[in-house]
Automatic annotation (TrEMBL):
GO molecular function, one term: protein-disulfide reductase activity
CDD domains: DsbDgamma
PANTHER family from the UniProt entry: SUPPRESSION OF COPPER SENSITIVITY PROTEIN, THIOL:DISULFIDE INTERCHANGE PROTEIN DSBD
Region forming the signal peptide: 1-22
Entry protein name: Thiol:disulfide interchange protein
Species of the source: Flavisphingopyxis soli
Thioredoxin domain boundaries: 551-680
Membrane topology reported for the UniProt record: Multi-pass membrane protein
Keywords: Cell membrane, Cytochrome c-type biogenesis, Membrane, Redox-active center, Signal, Transmembrane, Transmembrane helix
Main localization category: membrane
Cell location: Cell membrane
Keyword match Transmembrane: yes
Length: 680
């Protein structure tokens, strides 16, 4: 019923005369503001220029692709053109999917532009006025209502030399960048019962991080049907459900979205397409799962995780010979670690399915999340230093740093959350596999990562011989607890440094002041606790300080510009920059990094920024390009996905000449780079 109503409204809009200005059907302004722009107002006779319908949906509204899906309509235009002037087909950018009431929609929720080429005949004399009129109709919808809208647009051009203003060129280049690129090689499809399979020529080296097939040909496929993807060498196979009334032999026009707004358009003719094997590559899953467990195990010795693990070490030592308590705490700790890894992995998969360009540790690209983590680390530092005592949970046990299954669970959850910026050996394979495996298998990879991180404490909890080697409880535990405030405090300083890199001195000053106020409030809470005031009353002012600081950050963060975090001597990575170096045959070293990536910073300090390495680069004319992923730049996310990665670090070496990129190990050595720089 919903689909029928939408199509009736759309058909009614196409029959109504267009008003003189863009507006909604009936009274009131349009919900998608539309304007018509020309790349040049002086098109050259015998040449071609580009027009663009610039569409700006109101918040909560969306427009449609040429084939709106189960419910929706694209734009319809009636042109009024002078003799000697013609227009081509309307070009749409890569859309997004939106499911409403079980119906699949192909939509644009953010501002977008529809471009159209305009040709001017050589017979038109220079200086001739060219009057263009377009009567356009489109559909604007929310998740509850659709409104047919329309408008009449006029432009007065004058035949000239075709000069394009640089600002206009840049603006239209931006519009063209959102369009799918035409796939030069032919595609094919075959109908197999109720299903249809497409074979799209796509080199195996091209990653499809978030694929979706949008079919432009009406009544070719069922838009809301599930889509399955598989590789067949240099072909991407897509299987879905064919529309019941698809005419055999029909040429099908479509586009394949690879990731975000990146897509390839193609036309498919009937042909032989191999079936997709059911299931997935079990070998890839097992290899990735093993790499995830090993990667999580290695995370236990990474600097970003060790301060949190010290809390669990205290708890295990306090358990002593109580085997039942030790096992319960080990299981609770593992549960906290694995559940957080699964939650983060599930959120990452869901956001990528919604079109976001994100990778592992995506939450630390949000200043608000980093700020919450900073306040938490400051509070734990103050607790370890003895400024205050944490309130009890379940039998008087503390949230973290004390005994009890609840304390163990939250300690594990915190350890997993803090571990996310770390990427150690074996994790590149594991996290890269989540891009191509089904959602359930990808979640298993994230669960394996959590299992590896929790494995040492599971072993200690269930192997008495190992647990008995731990030191016995005693006065040393309180001294050890005080010392552990030092690495935790260093973690807080590292987060402050990340704030500075993300937002400059203004954000650093704000975070530092918030941390100082929180420490003061916690010190006051500790004094109140010593006088017998309940923990809840004593800590209320500290919680209020943290809440006020978080609200203030939410308000000021959008107005604070990020600072450049790449080394001044290195060139920021871009596809154009690397293409220019390849064209000239210049050797290049490319490294993708982030301020919150400990492995990245260790490699930079120990290898990349060593004077011997830099001198070898200078002596041999090696270009150095850096991709700073601290704030989750979508362009860099797509660049990582091209090499089947969704995390940093990633190191690439382009040899002298025009050879293909070599992916270097995640742990670099100076000799590794120096030898490649000197190679001829």
């Amino acid at each position: 019923m919903t689909r029928t109503i939408l199509f009736l409204l759309g058909a009614l809009a196409l029959l109504l005369p267009a008003p003189l200005a863009a507006q909604g059907f009936g009274a009131g302004p349009a919900h998608i503001q539309a304007s018509l722009e020309a790349e040049t107002m002086r098109p050259a006779p015998g040449g071609e220029t580009t027009f663009a319908f610039v569409m700006k949906p109101d918040a909560g509204w969306h427009g449609y692709w040429k084939n709106g899906g189960d419910a929706g309509l694209g734009m319809d235009i009636d042109w009024s053109l002078p003799t000697g002037v013609s227009v081509g087909e309307l070009a749409y950018p890569v859309p997004k999917t939106l499911v409403i009431a079980g119906l699949m929609n192909h939509v644009y929720e953010a501002p977008y532009a529809l471009t159209v080429p305009l040709k001017v005949s050589r017979a038109i004399a220079p200086g001739t006025m060219i009057a263009i009129e377009a009567r356009a109709r489109w559909l604007a919808c929310t998740d509850k209502v659709c409104v047919p809208e329309s408008g009449t647009f006029t432009l007065r051009l004058r035949a000239g030399d075709g000069t394009i203003d640089p600002a206009s060129r840049a603006r239209f280049d931006g519009f063209r960048a959102q369009l799918p690129q035409p796939l030069g090689s032919p595609a094919s499809y075959t109908i197999d019962g109720a299903d249809i399979r497409f074979a799209i020529p796509l080199p195996a080296a091209i990653a499809a991080a978030d694929p979706h097939l949008f079919v432009a040909t009406i009544d070719a496929v069922e838009a809301g049907a599930p889509q399955r993807f598989a590789r067949d060498g240099d072909r991407l196979i897509v299987a879905t459900r064919a529309a019941p009334n698809l005419t055999p032999g029909t040429r099908v026009d479509a586009l394949i979205r690879l990731a975000g707004s990146r897509g390839l358009s193609f036309s498919a003719a009937p042909g032989d397409v191999p079936p997709i094997a059911e299931g997935f590559d079990i070998g890839l899953l097992l290899a990735a799962l093993g790499a995830a467990v090993l990667g999580g195990l290695i995370l236990n010795i990474m600097p970003c995780v060790f301060p949190i693990l010290s809390l669990k070490a205290l708890s295990l030592a306090r358990a002593g010979g109580d085997e039942r308590r030790a096992r319960h705490e080990a299981l609770a700790y593992a549960g906290g670690v694995i559940l957080v890894c699964l939650a983060l992995g599930g959120l990452l998969i869901a956001l990528r399915a919604g079109g976001e360009n994100l990778g592992w540790a995506f939450q630390l690209q949000d200043r608000r999340i980093v700020f919450i983590l900073l306040l938490l680390v400051v509070a734990i530092t103050a607790n370890l230093a003895g400024l205050f005592e944490l309130p009890g949970f379940g039998g008087g046990e503390a949230l973290a740093g004390r005994g009890g299954t609840r304390g163990a669970f939250w300690t594990g959850a915190l350890a997993a959350f803090v571990a996310t910026p770390c990427t150690g050996p074996f994790m590149g394979l594991a996290l890269g596999a989540t891009l191509v495996l089904p959602a359930a298998a990808a979640l298993a990879i994230f669960g394996g990562l959590g299992l590896g991180l929790a494995l040492p404490f599971l072993v200690i909890g269930y192997v008495p011989a190992l647990r008995n080697r731990l030191p016995r409880p005693g006065p040393w535990m309180e001294r050890f607890r005080r010392w552990m405030a030092l690495p935790m405090g260093l973690t807080a300083l590292a987060l402050l440094w990340l704030f500075w890199k993300q937002g400059g001195s203004a954000l650093l000053a704000f975070a530092a002041m918030a941390g100082l106020f929180l420490v003061a409030a916690l010190w006051k809470a500790g004094r109140d606790q010593q006088r017998g005031i309940s923990a809840g009353r004593a800590l209320a002012p500290a919680l209020l300080v943290g809440l006020v600081a978080l609200i203030a950050l939410v308000r000021i963060a959008p107005h604070i510009a990020a600072t450049q975090s790449a080394a001044d001597a290195d060139t920021p990575y871009s596809a154009d920059a690397i293409a220019a170096l390849r064209a000239s045959g210049t050797p290049a070293f490319v490294y993708f990094t982030a301020d919150w990536c400990v492995t990245c910073k260790a490699n930079e300090a120990a290898t990349i920024d060593r004077e011997g390495v830099r001198q070898a680069f200078r002596d041999n004319d090696v270009a150095v390009l850096v991709g700073d992923w601290t704030d989750g730049d979508p362009a860099l996310t797509r660049a990582l996905a091209q090499f089947e990665r969704n995390s940093v670090p990633l190191y690439l070496w382009y040899p002298r000449g025009r050879g293909e990129a070599e992916i270097l190990p995640q742990v670099l050595t100076p000799s590794m780079l120096i030898e490649r720089a000197r190679a001829r």
